[in-house]
Automatic annotation (TrEMBL):
The protein, known as: Uncharacterized protein KIAA1211 homolog
This protein's encoding gene: LOC111111447
Chain spans, region Disordered: 1-55
Lineage, opening ranks: Eukaryota, Metazoa, Spiralia, Lophotrochozoa, Mollusca
Source organism (scientific name): Crassostrea virginica
């Protein structure tokens, strides 16, 4: 009878240890999934910031281009005016 009890106790102990290992493994998996999600989120945020920066740079570039074109048009108008004034 005593041998049976020890065997039963050992079985229960192994079962508990196995459950504990499984819980620990599940916890590790959840932590890893959480780390992956956080990393993906960080990458998305970094990409978003990079795209915003690129857009600001393009906006600045096109604004400068627009100013140059306007200045060129204004200069052409000035040249036409001076030509009329001085009959060129």
């Amino acid at each position: 009878m005593e041998g049976f009890d020890r065997q039963k106790e050992a079985e229960v102990r192994r079962h508990r240890e196995e459950e504990q290992r499984q819980k620990e493994e599940e916890r590790r998996q959840k932590e890893e999934e959480q780390r992956q999600k956080e990393e993906e989120q960080r990458q998305k945020e970094e990409e978003r910031k990079q795209k915003e920066q690129e857009q600001r740079e393009w906006d600045f570039f096109w604004e400068e281009e627009r100013r140059i074109i306007e200045d060129d048009k204004a200069f052409e108008e000035d040249v036409k005016l001076w030509k009329r004034i001085y009959n060129f």
